[in-house]
Amino acid sequence: MTAGALARRGFSDSTRALRLVGEAGLDPRTDTDVIDALAVAPDPDQALLGLIRVLETAPDAEEVLTVLREDPDLRTRLCGVLGTSTALTDHLVRHPGDWRELRGADAARSPEPEELRRGLLHTVGADPDSRAPTAAVFDGGSLNGLRHALRVAYRRRVLRLAGRDLSGLCTVDEVAAELADLAAATLDAALAVARAERPEDAASCRLAVIGMGKCGGRELNYVSDVDVVFVAEPAVVPDGEEPVDDQAAMRAATRLATAMMRIPSETDAEGVLWEVDPALRPEGRNGPLVRPLSGHLAYYERWAKTWEFQALLKARPIAGDAELGAAYQAAISPLVWEAAGRETSWRTCRRCAAAWWRTSRPGRPSAS
């Protein structure tokens, strides 16, 4: 294979690409399948450079090349990832063995939401069957180590999803839904770490995380923020013990939610996963981060605007206390549909229709 042949395959600097092919340990005459897989990646030059970076750090570089030559499915997934995402290429450089995440039957299979949840909870040493899973540190580890392990596990799952996505094994809707399920599982595991970090707060309250926006609607993309709302109640105590004060429980839940939000948004070697955005809560950023269920209901019954009810159409429990999350959804859902009959809702609809008729009605000349 000549530099001209590489140019025809889409490499922008074909002379340099021919040299890099040799540096990667590929033979231009016999390794045409690997070179062609690199060439059909979204960015062939980026894919080739990424492969060299992976091979330079991999202790099993010869095995990587051998499997690339022999396994067409791995070849398609790995070259597609390398030619699409510098973030996932960086992950493969930091974790050289993770190229295996793109190989075999599991790499082609879409996981169920509960599988993602249980896997990430196990990553932080939490019991997925517990009502309030709490992370556990083993063998001289630390909570910082658990936070890092969770972030690495998240990246591995995204790597596997991207491999399926780029090789055409799932639709856009399926990718968006899995990203939302993965975010929910990550928040559940992050909450387990927060419970271990703040055991007194965890013992004082029940906390449910409600997904909003793209996460609530299972429409997340690879770089979306995750919109959430928090609902909390005092912890249930055994008979004979003094009940937890409501205000104390809300303060504990606020500290717990804050600790949970930090984990996916903090920066370390794995980079920021995504920001957790609680701005869709009642009163927005001016309102308390955490409210009891009664507080949510009082706000929506008295003060909420039409757009806030529209936002609730995608609300669903995604992490934390499942029973409390279900109670929130059951209480809020009727209010969403009752809001359509409010006079303010009709006025909003009439204003929107009038604005559309003035600016966008059929046959209206365009501004250009």
Describe the structure.
There is one protein chain. The chain has helices at 3-8, 14-23, 32-39, 44-57, 61-70, 72-82, 86-94, 113-123, 143-166, 172-197, 199-204, 213-216, 246-265, 293-302, 306-311, 322-338, 343-360; strands at residues 205-211, 226-234, 276-277, 290-291, 316-320. By secondary structure, the protein is α/β, with parallel strands linked by helices. The chain has a domain at 1-86. Strands 1, 2, 3, 4 and 5 form a five-stranded mixed β-sheet that branches. α3 packs across α6 (72-82) and α8 runs parallel beside α10.
Give me a quick take on this structure:
It contains 17 helices and five strands. The chain is of the alpha/beta class.
The gyration radius over C-alpha positions equals 25 Å
Largest sheet: 5 strands, mixed
Structural class: alpha/beta
Element-level helix/strand string: HHHHHHHHHHHEHEHEEHHEHH
| Count of DSSP-assigned helices | 17
Fraction of residues in H or I helices? 55-70%
Instruction: Summarize model confidence as the mean pLDDT.
Output: 90
The low-pLDDT segments are: 345-357, 359-368
End-to-end separation? 50 Å
Instruction: Estimate the global geometry from the Cα principal axes.
Output: elongated
Our estimate of the beta-strand percent is 5-15%
Question: What's the number of extended β-strand segments?
Answer: 5
